[in-house]
Amino acid sequence: MSTDLTMGTITYVLRGVRPLGGDAVDVVLADGVVAEVAEAGSATAEGATVIEAADHVLLPGLVDLHTHLREPGREDAETVASGTRAAAVGGFTAVHAMANTSPVADTAGVVEQVHRLGQQAGWADVHPVGAVTVGLDGVRLAELGAMADSAARVRVFSDDGKCVHDPILMRRALEYVKAFDGVVAQHAQEPRLTEGAQMNEGVVSAQVGLAGWPAVAEEAIIARDVLLAEHVGSRLHVCHLSTAGSVEIIRWAKSRGIDVTAEVTPHHLILTDDLARTYDPTYKVNPPLRTAADVEAVRQGLADGTIDIVATDHAPHTREDKDCEWGAAAFGMTGLETALSVVQQTMVDTGRLTWSDVARVLSTAPARIGRIEATQGRPIAVGEPANLTLVDPTATRTIDGAAQATSSGNTPFRGHELPGQVVATFLRGRATVLDGAPVAPVDGVVSAP
Amino acid sequence: MNPGPALPEVPEPDGTTVLGASDVARALTRIAHEIVERSRGVDDLVLLGIPTRGVTLARRLAERLAQIDPAFDADACTGELDVTMYRDDLRRQPTRAVGITRLPAVGIEDKTVVLVDDVLFSGRTIRAALDALGDLGRPRAVRLACLVDRGHREVPIRPDFVGKNLPTAQSERVRVRLAEVDDVADAVVIAGRDGSTDVRSTR
Amino acid sequence: MRHLLSTADLSKDEAVGLLDTAAQMAATQSREIKKLPTLRGRTVVNLFFEDSTRTRISFETAAKRLSADVINFSAKGSSVSKGESLKDTALTLHAMGADAVVVRHWASGAPYQLAHAGWLDAAVLNAGDGTHMHPTQALLDAYTMRRHLAGRAGGLAAPADDGVGADLAGLRIAIVGDVLHSRVARANVALLHTLGAEVTLVAPPTLVPVGVEAWPCRTSYDLDATLADWRPDAVMMLRVQRERMSGGAGAFFPSPLEYTRYYGLDARRLAQLADHAIVMHPGPMNRGLEISAEAADSDKAVIVEQVANGIAVRMAALYLLMAGDRSAEGNDL
Q1: What residue segments make up the domains of chain A, in order of their start?
Q2: Which parts of chain B have pLDDT scores under 50?
Q3: Is B90 within 8 Å of C323 when comparing Cβ atoms?
Q4: Does domain C135-303 match CATH 3.40.50.1370?
Q5: Which residues of A touch C249 (CB under 8 A)?
Q6: Which residues of C touch B97 (CB under 8 A)?
Q7: Alpha-carbon distance C179 to C212, whole Å?
Q8: Of A4-13, A68-77, B97-106, C39-48, where does mean pLDDT reach its minimum?
Q9: Active-site residue A313, yes or no?
């Protein structure tokens, strides 16, 4: 074991790993990059930390396009530090921090603050998402150009939590971000159709008496937005798509050549609105959990490439915001530390995606959409930045919200047994996670285990 | 009423029959005569059976009273008194179903009410019955008739008319079987009497 | 029986048993001394997060007739945003030693949470939650129907013994009005189905919930056709909130007048009912909107009797939840 203080990294030999689930090799990480890819069992490096990782899958560091870090404003629920530590534990090396903080990330000042907090924490790259409209009010465009030009180099803009529902404002935003190759990430929710909405509108809502959030409220906005994007020749990203109809619309839009990308959350890949029967607000999320048919449709959409990426919509909430009546509870569930396991269970273990596909939907595609593909979502090859995630797909673990790295306990998988364990995460060659546990960064240098 | 721990619900083929059908019939006839004698006739006399078998016994007694004195209107002077909501042991057991209370057509006000039950044991059921009766009206007098008195009283209650005094151990179970209710010949059976039980005679 | 949260949880035997118990309770209520000692020393808390004087008084009367101590706890001031209050309130009631909590709440599911979150171990009675359930209302409705109609399916004679022991097999019940927002309708559909009755919901399409096709009942948009062709044995009129009739673009119906024209029970529709049919309303009524004075005051109307039956049904529910040894029984009712 040695610490090369000049380069700030330790040399690691990952022995017997399977890059993207392929054949076993040894991978050497040094000086922040992939230094060597060699035949399994052959690599040696002077003073290196050897990680015996036979049958572990090596993925490019995961990239989350949709994370709520809550800071500034709701540090009681999550901070940039705690949220990015949770990200590292979940195998992420970069996250996009949503703009619905307090104050809202609608100015260069706020996005630079969040960006800087991410650098200071050192767990993962933090790429702030800029608000589309001032204060998320849906009335006036925020200074998108200033945020794009700031030190945070914002490329993704979203009013997430709220929909940019005014069609002319949405058109302007789509047009305006073309100047700096930005993208509008739309939270598709027709507000009038979802006033007071608590859960998916359907058989279950009719029985449990909770106000319905109809699929059409999502689909109508997506349909409008893809047509707007086509008309103005801009690119559009659809956040947390949740219905079978939305998948159909995206599929149709792509067949027309419209530059649209779509994401699905882990929870929409596995949970259904039946959970509302428990009235446990842990399962209250926006967009709401849908039906089993919708779950199947989004899995199919992810498998056939209609849906481009999986993004967590990690939404930490304090206990007081969840330990209450369903109708009074906040929307959202945490996801950073369970996302990869859910994707493995629903898509890999079912044979619908390969590990190479997982690298695409959780790393390379979100990096490309967020325009951070120069540093994240890179191939596993000599000379590439060592942003890597090592997964033991044969492990199983039982989720305990209290034991997670996130500050909040609102995981919907509490008590569930999920497959797969992130064994190690490397951010530019530094281990942020080893043996499945976070390794606190010290002054930009990872303390050795 | 068994205030002790609930005994396992087992059929009692091994029980000892202490009264047969003819014994039951003779006991009821004797009780009927005693009631008439004690009340100096059947005027203002009403019978209130305590569910389930007390109701049947009350009906049989009423028929005998009518035979003794045709002035006794068996239908109008017989009722049933459910004491469930007056019991003091409700919290010790799974919820009991509430039974029917049906007062005799002639009422109970200023009548001589004879409460009729099958087995007199701790006396708590009769205590509950007296409370229930008090909420329903004010009889001139209340008397108690039972087919079997097995002893082990826990409250100061004493029967006026007894078919049979039956010494038992606390752990034993006394079962009254009546044709109308149980679809078997009338009988009084003691069960749970085994070698380990110290059977003492009580009276 | 540990809690009474939803009529959907009741088996047929449990439901009939509860109605039979209510019948015995009702019998005690015609006596000079109406009070029973059954729940002496036990504490019932009426926990109301939403005003409902009628329901609270009914539960309070029922509990007092059984000699329980009653504490009225109005938590209406607790706002939507102060969600923690449900938990804190529950912990408070637990500390106070409540044996049963009668809860009325604006939020669907709040009684379920109270019963299952581990905050308190009292029996929970749902006295109406959001747009979800109102089980004692449905039970008193069923009790009232049984008294008048049990065994009437096909036009037989009126029931003897107030229908004790009977279910509602074959009866036809029309539930008319704002089904979408009605916990009474949800509670009734589940219970009436369990008891063997047939239900037709009659409402404008805007007031029928999406997903109603999974309910064990029929749906009609045409009250006149339902009355003429289906011949219901009972017609239950639901209360309509006037503000839902005239809220601009989001209103569920063009105007109160048009609602009354198509879905109100007026003298003409009343005359169409079979001789034995009864008219019900959970109250409070909007006379002239969903029900006309002629209908409300007719001899077919059993609306006042519903109120009286409510006390007996609530006594029965309190008795069954509180009287026995609660540790001996695991299941919700």
Answers
A1: 60-369
A2: 1-11, 195-203
A3: yes
A4: yes
A5: 192
A6: 17, 20-21
A7: 10
A8: A4-13
A9: yes
What is the reported pTM? Answer: 0.90
User: Which member of A313, A321, A357, A392 is catalytic?
Assistant: A313
DSSP string for chain B: ---SSPPP----TTPEEEE-HHHHHHHHHHHHHHHHHHHTSSTTEEEEEPTTHHHHHHHHHHHHHHHH-TTS-TTTTEEE---GGG-S-GGGSSPPPP---B--TT-STTSEEEEEEEEESSSHHHHHHHHHHHHH---SEEEEEEEEE----SSS---SEEEEE----TT-EEEEE-HHHHSS--EEEEE---TTS------
Distance from C-alpha of B44 to C-alpha of B42, rounded to nearest angstrom: 6
Q: Chain A partners of C83 at a C-beta cutoff of 8 Å?
A: 320-321, 323-325, 328-329
Quote the minimal CA–CA distance from C210 to chain A in Å.
6
Of C183, C213, C215, the CB nearest to A209: C183
Neighbours of chain B (3+ CB pairs under 8 A): C
Look at residue B196 and tell me if it is in a domain: no
**Per-residue pLDDT band at A40 (split at 50, 70, 90):** very high
How do beta strands A430-434 and B78-80 pair? unpaired
- CB-based burial of residue A47 (10 Å sphere; 0-12 exposed, 13-18 middle, 19+ buried)? exposed
Residue B145's domain comprises 26-170
Asked if pLDDT for residue A220 goes beyond 50, the answer is yes
Which of 3.30.200.20, 3.10.28.10, 3.40.50.1370, 2.40.30.10 would CATH assign to domain C7-132+308-328? 3.40.50.1370
User: What number is the average pLDDT over the span A328-356?
Assistant: 98
pLDDT band at C155 (very low <50, low <70, confident <90, very high): low
Tell me the per-residue pLDDT of C27-41, one tens digit each, with 9 for 90 and over.
Answer: 998 888 899 999 999
User: Looking at the complex, does the CB of residue B80 fall below 8 Å from at least one CB of chain C?
Assistant: no
Contact C214 A325 (CB under 8 A): no
pLDDT for the residue C305? 95
For chains B and C, having 3+ Cβ pairs within 8 Å is answered: yes
Please give, rounded to a whole number of angstroms, the shortest distance from the CA of C132 to a CA of chain A: 4
Task: State the average pLDDT over residues A72-84.
Answer: 97
Residue C263 to chain B, least CA–CA distance (Å)? 41
Q: Is position B88 within any domain?
A: yes
Among all chains, which residue has been given the structure tokens 């903080």? A101
**What confidence score (pLDDT) does residue A9 get?**
62
HSE-CB for B31 with a 13 A CA cutoff:
31
- CATH number among 3.30.300.20, 3.40.50.720, 3.20.20.140, 3.30.465.10, domain A60-369: 3.20.20.140
Kindly give the interhelix angle for B21-39 and B53-68, rounded to the nearest 10 degrees. Answer: 60
Of how many residues is chain C composed?
Answer: 333
Alpha helices by DSSP H, A70-214: 80-89, 108-121, 144-149, 167-176, 203-208
B100: chain C residues, CB-CB within 8 Å: 24, 27
* pLDDT per residue as tens digits for the range C194-241: 999 999 999 999 999 999 999 999 999 999 999 999 999 999 999 998
Spans of all domains in chain C: 7-132+308-328, 135-303
pLDDT for residue A46: 83
| Least confident span in A311-315, A342-346, C82-86, C264-268 | C82-86
Please tell me the distance in Å from C242's CA to the nearest CA on chain B. 43
The mean predicted confidence, pLDDT, of chain A is 95
Contact C24 B93 (CB under 8 A): no
Q: Is the pLDDT of residue C78 over 60?
A: no
Q: Is the peptide bond before A287 cis (omega within 30 degrees of 0)?
A: yes
Predicted pLDDT at C234: 98
Q: How far apart, in whole angstroms, are the C-alpha atoms of residue B47 and residue B39?
A: 13
CATH code of the domain covering residue B74: 3.40.50.2020
